[in-house]
């Protein structure tokens, strides 16, 4: 009964505080805006994908109707490939903000195509989107700092501390309970919009449950930190300054310093350099003896060695062979680029272990399948599709098969 009485007293105290009520309402509203913003981004991407799938089908039909040989068909046919957002992607947009998630590829050299990206607003790219991962990792700690920094000092400055301690029987129990109630209220105000957003998107309960657990752990960490600092016998302004200093270090200093260190320690070639290397190799092939190109091609594809002779000034098999050789030339750079990004991502987890806000965002990106591993997996799917595309055309080009429009239906299709 005593516990219920204390709970009732503290709950009424929180309900009478206009400042706490306003902060909790602000938490609910900002959480809802973060979820809504993420859903808008995802819905926009889904609409673009649906529109481009339809346009791609129409364009393929037109290209197939106009071509009369396999080489011309391969050259004129663009294939839309895409990375569809997961059902939980609204919570953390992650790499979908920075990396390309859609391409139009042909059976030509892939390296010049896979690293192309849409031109976006550089200011928006710098700021980033306001999604739930950002809200939970950066904004929620600020709200907890504002609500909990003067938990004890306010009572002391208002000369109510002695009476409150005497009525509770212990110096820390009323503040511990009050901090717990405030923290649970912030967690609920933050998590309710997330649950509604997940229900609307159809995300699995396992993913949503993991997301809520991470949110509760995040709130618990910052609440404990705020409670520990708020117990000091110092003025409210001093305690607020200390907590804001910790927030700046964990949110800004550690991730920024870690990112700069990783960029220095793990050098990565740029996608532009890969594109340039591949395109220079392709352009140079026009001036090289055809035997040089075909020899480089059959070293990687020995099954076509018996059909590698080029007797005409221009043959499609030679054209697609030097496209492939262009990819082979850029392959070391491309492999270094993929391995470098993967290595940087692994080091990023080490830095995130020192920065709970960064760790929160990274965990949410993993749950939402918008992390670097998911991006690299998408690029690998594009490479595998391009490989199937080339293997569809190579027999027809090297064996000189007669063009048969009925075989077009066997052209590989991209599978998400």
Characterization of this structure:
This protein is mostly helical. Helices cover 72% and strands 2% of the residues. It has 16 helices and 2 strands. Strands 1-2 form a two-stranded antiparallel ribbon. Helix 6 runs antiparallel to helix 15. The longest helix has 49 residues.
Tell me briefly what this model is.
The chain is mainly alpha-helical. It has helices at 2-16, 18-66, 70-76, 111-114, 122-127, 132-148, 153-157, 161-168, 173-201, 205-230, 236-265, 271-285, 290-300, 316-352, 356-368, 372-398, and strands at 79-82, 102-105.
Summary keywords:
single chain, 416 residues, mainly alpha, two-stranded antiparallel ribbon, 72% helix
Topology:
Elements: H1 2-16, H2 18-66, H3 70-76, E1 79-82, E2 102-105, H4 111-114, H5 122-127, H6 132-148, H7 153-157, H8 161-168, H9 173-201, H10 205-230, H11 236-265, H12 271-285, H13 290-300, H14 316-352, H15 356-368, H16 372-398
Antiparallel strand pairs: 1-2
Distance between the termini: 58 Å
Portion in helices:
over 70%
Taken in chain order, the helices and strands follow as HHHEEHHHHHHHHHHHHH
Count every helix, treating DSSP H or I runs of 4 or more residues as helices.
Answer: 16
Largest sheet: 2 strands, antiparallel
Structural class: mainly alpha
How large is the share of residues in beta strands?
A: under 5%
Average of per-residue pLDDT values: 88
Low-confidence stretches: 119-127
* Neighbour order of strands in the largest sheet: 1-2
Count of individual beta strands: 2
Rounded to the nearest angstrom, the radius of gyration is: 29 Å
Spatial shape = elongated
